[in-house]
Design brief:
The structure holds three protein chains of three kinds.
Chain A (H helix, E strand, L loop, with lengths): L3 H21 L3 H25 L5 H31 L13
Chain B lengths: L4 H23 L8 H25 L5 E10 L4 E9 H24 L6 H20 L3 H19 L6 H32 L4 H9 L5 H18 L8 H4 L5 H10 L3 H10 L5 H22 L5 H21 L3 H35 L21 H15 L5 H19 L5 H25 L17 H12 L4 H4 L11 H5 L13 H35 L5 H8 L1 H7 L4 H74 L7 H20 L1
Antiparallel strand pairs in B: 1-2
Helix pairs in contact in B: 1-2, 1-4, 2-3, 3-4, 3-10, 3-14, 3-18, 4-5, 5-6, 6-7, 6-8, 8-11, 8-12, 10-14, 11-13, 11-14, 12-13, 12-17, 13-14, 13-16, 13-17, 14-15, 14-16, 14-18, 15-17, 15-18, 16-17, 16-21, 17-21, 22-23
Chain C lengths: L3 H17 L6 H25 L8 E9 L4 E7 L4 H17 L7 H20 L3 H22 L4 H29 L6 H11 L4 E2 L2 E2 H16 L8 H8 L2 H26 L1 H28 L3 H21 L12 H36 L10 H4 L1 H14 L6 H13 L4 H7 L1 H18 L15 H19 L2 H21 L6
Antiparallel strand pairs in C: 1-2, 3-4
Classes of the chains: A mainly alpha, B mainly alpha, C mainly alpha.
């Protein structure tokens, strides 16, 4: 288990799952969960490259930054979803189409 | 000796009548008596000055007397015009004639025009006329002469049209002005020809220039003929004679002043002034025009029934005489005849005015407004009713008929002698003396015819006779004065020889040599005339007796019937009565075609050229703009421009399907794109 | 005195702005404002005349300011003997025109505002010495004219206005092309004085499409100006515009606008293209002859009095053209006949002025009778002399002035034109003396039909000319008589400038490229 590829492989699977979730789910919260998966896949990559690629501690710092960013993003996104729900009685993203022509 | 006293006097003589004109035209109507005293005062002072000048001339007794004064009127550097006065013996005599007849007319009109609606206007125009006539007389150059010349035409227009309510008067005034203008065109062309060659308008310079040969040959002939055309217009020479008889529509005193004594004499005066530059060819032209006019007009006068028309044609004929004299070289004789004619012809007009006035009054009493008071067929037997008029007119008639002891005999004789001598020098021009003597015979005939029809015989309208009276003294005064001036002695003083014109006139007005080569010298002409003198005198007495005798037989003794002889003459009688149909033919072949041409031109201009050609541009533009507009809309706008837009919107409609607005779809596209890129990359 | 010319030009604009601020129902105030403005302008022109140095043939009171330096366009004003009398005439006729328009009651505010704008345009053309500025004023003049005819005119006013506008614009366009041609061949300047110096040489030998540039530019400019004169065959806008325009505008049209054409030819064509003068003089004289005869015959046939007067303008401007052509008499080919050249050119310029006063007078008089009888049919009057003696007297004088009676100014200028042109164009001058007869014929015939004969029953109540109308005519009448008797004051003003022009044309004509 000291191989970089193993970590990258896991991160790729996580990323793909996240993308799949973002693409396929109609539920706004589920889409957000997909986004979290994508971000965490990136975090794994950061840490893995930091450990094996000679990037010192930079990767770890970026991972921490991304985690903070993800938290903030989740807070804002959830606020939006709640607002959508309040206004439209739904959290289905397809139905929030008021700006469509 | 006298410095420029003559010039000073002339200034007053010129401008006093103008002042009277201005006063009359501006405030005349508001003055007491409508201001006639202003005009009369001015003209009387003028007359006094003219007499003073005349006396001074007689005292001086210098044939070469001459005073000149001029001032620069226009000065543009090279081009300049000087105007000025020339006073010599001819001028002084002419000024006196104008002032005298003008004064007589002013006084005569007091009665004749009494109560006229435009009394002050009438006097105003008389003033304007006197001013302009004096302007002609005093001019020392062609420009101021031309200017006064035209102004005389205008005063004539205004005075002939004095009773403009009558259409005939209005027509006559227009005709007079226009006919004069025809002559004036020639005058003007003559001026231009001379100025172009000589570079000056002053007579003195022109004579010098011609003598120096600056202008000669055909050009000079044309220039002379051009100037003479002006004289033909003013002096009513054939074929421009048509206006003068019509001008009789004006008040009779005006006819006496302008259309007998002075204005029409202006042409003769001009010819006398320019005589030195007339070439032999030009003189010949002048002579034939004059001679023909003399006899031509006389033949018309025979048959006229209107008393003023007889006098009018007689005037034309007498003017022809004067012109004939100029043409044959005896131009001092022409001026002499101008002088005597002015007196007796003015008097004849006053006499006729007196008769007409009386007739008019009598007809008015009878409430008869249809009978023509000027028609001699309504007169007859006035001799005892109007003795002053009769005797005064008789004196003048004897003068015009050329009877010895009267003024006309002397001047006519001088002309006929000159003509005869000319024909002796140039036998091929034998017609000229025939014209002259023929006209003299006819003149004697028709003048006595007029006298007999008017004053002798049975009254044609007896019912009027009670109301026919002698005219008041304002009218008889001039009659007596001018009747007296028809006697020879006034013109021959200090001599009393009734058959020789030798006297102050011939002493003071001596012919000068022409400045053009080829003409006879003054001396030769005088010699010739002197030789011809007795023959001419015999002949002229002969023809006068013949004319008068025939007239007595036909109209007084009625040995021959005028009617029978008239009908025997057939077409000749008709032609004479209708004035050779000149008016009709001018109308038919000149005025009407001109008017038609004008109408045609105006039609072409407006209905054809403007409407179709100019507006055609508009229409073509309009059509072109429609076509362009259609192309613009259909082809460019609809097909090309809108086509592009339609293409874009069609494509857009297809492509917009991709734009679902769903992020998830976009992510899918991105992913797919990345995958495709990776696949491409991997190769 | 520093900026007197600018004041002359812009004073009417100040008046126009002032009128714009006056409420539209205060008509009297508007009229008085217009009168005061034009009156002041007229006084200014008199001051200008008083300070004018008649001995100096060059430009005086010059003003110069940069305007569009990148194209060498400047604001240049100046006045010489040719333009001074025209400026005075413009101011006088505009001043009188205000009083002639006193009875206008439709949209008074607009009328007088446009009237003053027109005034500025005309004054500007006479005084500007920059070709570009000249052209701008030329166009400025056109616009108010269009509205003045189109809104305040007679029954056919729209047609007349658009015809006038398009016709003149057509001329302007040709002129613009000519101006640009000069601009690019003569060192890229619009300064007329500079061009006058440069153009005669710069244009030598320049060929365009196988034609001499001088001929091309001459014709372009000539047509532009000829339409204004109007020279036959560009004359048919004139009777229509004159007939339809309100009286005051007819007065300005005949009195001044026609003069712009002659002025332009003398200032531009003569000044810039001396060779062209020689080339074209014969044609000019011939066109003058046609103008005289054609105009005279057309006038003879007219039934409408105003149209008769309009055609008389065509006829009278013909004399001016003949006189202008006489300038070549001063050349060597004609024996350096300076007398003839001075007489002809002086006559032409004097005729411009005289026709200005005389035709203005005639149009005012036609307006007077139209206001009373409501028609202008010559045949429809008759015997008015006994009903309106004062009007008759004044009209008689005006008609006599028109037919060139000595003692009135028209005679002197006509005679000078003829005398000047005679040595060069004998046949043409002799033929055009027929015009003297035609003049007399149409004026006297019209006079007879209107005033002589028995009084027409309809007009026994016709009122005499009133005081206001009288005072609009009398000044012109006085000028006509004054210059007829004593023309020197006028001729003194123009003489030096005319000499300059003659010498300029004669000395610079080379015939090299013609």
């Amino acid at each position: 288990m000291h191989d970089l590829n193993t970590y990258l492989f896991v991160a790729a699977i996580l990323f793909s799952l996240g993308v799949f979730g973002v693409m396929t789910r109609r539920n706004g919260i589920a889409v957000l969960m997909g986004v979290e998966l994508i971000l965490n896949a990136a975090n794994i990559n950061f840490v893995a490259f930091s450990r094996f690629g000679g990037m010192n501690m930079d990767g770890h710092v970026f991972a921490l930054l991304v985690i903070v960013l993800a938290a903030a993003e989740a807070a804002v996104a959830l606020a939006i979803v709640i607002n959508i729900y309040n206004n439209m009685n739904t959290i289905n993203v397809d139905e929030a189409s008021a700006l469509k022509e | 000796m006298m410095d420029n006293i003559f010039i000073n006097y002339s200034l007053f003589i010129l401008f006093l009548p103008l002042g009277a004109f201005l006063v009359q035209i501006l405030i005349g109507k508001r003055l007491p008596r409508q201001g006639d005293w202003v005009s009369i005062g001015a003209i009387v002072i003028t007359l006094i000055l003219a007499i003073a000048m005349f006396v001074a001339m007689l005292l001086d007794y210098d044939p070469n007397f001459k005073q000149e004064a001029s001032f620069t009127w226009i000065d543009m550097g090279a081009f300049s015009i000087s105007l000025g006065f020339l006073v010599d013996n001819i001028t002084v005599i002419m000024l006196l004639v104008v002032a005298l007849i003008s004064t007589c007319t002013h006084i005569f009109s007091l009665e004749y025009l009494k109560g006229d609606v435009r009394y002050s206007r009438y006097y105003a125009y008389l003033g304007l006329f006197t001013f302009s006539m004096n302007g002609i007389v005093l001019a020392n150059n062609l420009v101021s002469m031309y200017m006064s010349w035209e102004l005389v035409g205008v005063s004539s227009f205004l005075l002939i049209g004095h009773w403009f309510e009558k259409d005939t008067a209005a027509d006559a005034s227009k005709k007079a002005f226009l006919t004069n203008r025809v002559g004036d065109i020639g005058f003007f062309i003559g001026i231009m020809l001379i100025y172009t060659a000589v570079g000056s308008f002053a007579f003195g310079d022109i004579f010098e220039g011609v003598a120096a040969g600056m202008i000669s040959g055909t050009t000079l002939t044309f220039a002379g003929v051009g100037l003479f055309l002006g004289a033909m217009g003013k002096s009513s020479q054939f074929p421009l004679h048509i206006w003068l008889p019509d001008a009789m529509e004006g008040p009779t005193p005006v006819s006496a002043l302008m259309h007998a004594a002075t204005m029409v004499a202006a042409g003769v005066y001009l010819s006398v002034r320019i005589f030195p530059i007339l070439t032999p060819d030009a003189l010949l032209f002048v002579a034939y025009i004059g001679g023909f006019t003399a006899i031509f007009a006389a033949t018309i006068a025979i048959t006229q029934n209107d008393i003023k028309k007889v006098l009018a044609y007689s005037t034309v004929s007498q003017l022809g005489y004067m012109i004939l004299a100029v043409g044959t070289g005896v131009y001092t004789a022409a001026f002499f005849h101008l002088l005597t004619h002015a007196m007796f012809k003015a008097n004849l007009f006053y006499g006729s005015g007196s008769v007409i006035h009386s007739m008019h009054h009598a007809l008015h009493e009878k409430h008869d407004h249809d009978t023509d008071p000027q028609d001699m067929r309504n007169m007859g037997g006035f001799k005892d009713k109007m003795p002053v008029t009769y005797w005064s007119m008789l004196l003048s008639t004897l003068a015009i008929a050329g009877v010895p002891l009267f003024s006309g005999f002397l001047s006519k004789d001088a002309i006929l002698a000159g003509t005869l001598s000319f024909a002796q020098h140039h036998p091929e021009h034998f017609l000229l003396p025939i014209f002259g003597f023929g006209a003299a015979a006819i003149t004697a005939f028709y003048m006595f015819r007029m006298m007999f029809l008017t004053f002798h015989g049975e009254p044609q309208m007896p019912e009027l006779m009670d109301d026919i009276h002698e005219s008041p003294k304002e009218m008889t005064g001039p009659l007596i004065l001018l009747g007296g001036l028809s006697v020879f002695v006034w013109y021959t003083l200090p001599y009393f020889n009734p058959i020789s014109s030798h006297g102050w006139f011939t002493d003071l007005v001596v012919p000068k040599d022409a400045v053009v080569p080829g003409n006879l010298t003054a001396h030769e002409i005088e010699e010739g005339a002197h030789h011809a003198h007795y023959l001419a005198m015999g002949l002229s007495i002969g023809v006068a007796v013949l004319g008068i005798g025939l007239s007595i037989l036909m109209y007084l003794k009625k040995v021959f019937s005028a009617e029978t002889w008239g009908s025997r003459a057939g077409f000749m009688y008709d032609w004479s009565l209708n004035k050779y149909y000149f008016d009709e033919n001018y109308n038919k072949y000149l005025y009407q075609p001109t008017l038609r041409l004008a109408n045609k031109i105006a039609w072409i201009d407006w209905e054809l050229y403007d409407k179709y050609f100019i507006n055609g541009f508009g229409r073509v533009t309009d059509w072109a703009s429609r076509v362009t507009g259609k192309f613009d809309f259909d082809a460019i706008d609809q097909t090309l421009v809108d086509g592009t837009a339609k293409l874009a919107s069609g494509l857009g409609a297809i492509f917009k399907k991709v734009q679902t607005g769903k992020l998830q779809n976009y992510v899918l596209y991105v992913t797919a794109g990345v995958i495709v890129l990776m696949i491409i990359q991997s190769f | 005195m520093e900026h007197i010319l600018s004041w002359l030009i812009w004073l009417p604009i100040i008046g126009m702005v002032a009128i714009a601020f006056i409420p539209r129902d205060k008509e009297d105030v508007i009229k008085i404002t217009a009168a005061v403005t034009t009156g002041l302008q007229f006084l200014l022109t008199l001051v200008l005349w008083n300070n004018f140095d008649t001995g100096n043939g060059g430009m005086q009171f010059m003003e110069r300011a940069e305007w569009i330096p990148s194209f060498n366009i400047a604001y240049i004003l100046g006045v010489d003997g040719l333009s001074l009398p025209m400026a005075i005439l413009t101011a006088l006729l505009c001043f009188l025109g205000v009083f002639v328009s006193w009875n206008i009651n439709k949209a008074v505010k607009g009328y007088f505002a446009l009237f003053l704008l027109l005034d500025t345009g005309i004054m500007g053309v006479f005084l500007s010495m920059d070709f570009f500025l000249f052209y701008i004023f030329w166009e400025v003049m056109l616009l108010p004219m269009y509205f003045l005819i189109g809104m305040w005119g007679g029954p056919q006013r729209e047609y007349a206005a658009i015809k006038f506008f398009l016709y003149t614009l057509f001329g302007s366009v040709l002129m613009l092309v000519g101006i640009l041609g000069l601009y690019f061949t003569c060192g890229k300047t619009f300064d007329i004085l500079e061009l006058t110096r440069v153009a005669p040489e710069a244009l030598q030998g320049v060929m365009w499409w196988g034609m001499s540039a001088i001929k091309v530019i001459w014709v372009l400019l000539f047509v532009g100006f000829a339409i204004k004169v109007p020279v036959f065959p560009f004359h048919t806008w004139l009777p229509l515009a004159h007939v339809e325009a309100p009286t005051a505008i007819s007065v300005l049209l005949a009195g001044i606008l026609l003069k712009l054409g002659v002025y332009g030819i003398l200032r531009i064509n003569y000044g810039l293209m001396p060779d062209g003068v020689y080339w074209f003089a014969g044609a000019l004289a011939f066109l003058g002859l046609i103008n005289v005869i054609w105009g005279g015959l057309c006038a003879l046939a007219q039934k409408d009095l105003k149209k008769l007067v309009a055609y008389s303008s065509v006829n009278h401007m013909g004399y001016s053209l003949i006189g202008m052509a006489a300038i070549i008499a001063a050349g060597e080919a004609h024996g350096l006949n300076m007398k003839a050249a001075q007489a002809g050119l002086g006559g032409a310029v004097f005729q411009m002025f005289n026709h200005g006063t005389i035709s203005a007078m005639l149009f005012i008089l036609v307006g007077v009778i139209y206001d009373r009888a409501h028609h202008r049919d010559i045949e429809g009057f008759g015997g008015l002399a006994s009903q309106m003696p004062i009007y008759t007297g004044i009209t008689a004088l005006a008609f006599f002035a028109g037919l060139g009676l000595p003692g009135l100014s028209g005679f002197i200028s006509e005679a000078m034109c003829f005398i000047g042109a005679f040595p060069v164009f004998k046949a043409i001058v002799i033929a055009s003396t027929i015009g003297i007869l035609l003049n007399a014929a149409y004026f006297l015939w019209a006079f007879q039909r209107i005033f002589f004969g028995k009084l027409n029953e309809k007009y026994t109540e016709l009122p005499e000319i009133n005081r206001l109308e009288l005072w609009t005519v009398v000044p012109l009448l006085v000028i006509t008589i004054f210059f007829g008797v004593y023309p020197s004051p006028y001729l003194d003003v123009i003489a030096a400038s005319m000499d300059n022009l003659i010498n300029h044309v004669v000395s610079l004509a080379t015939f090299a490229s013609m």
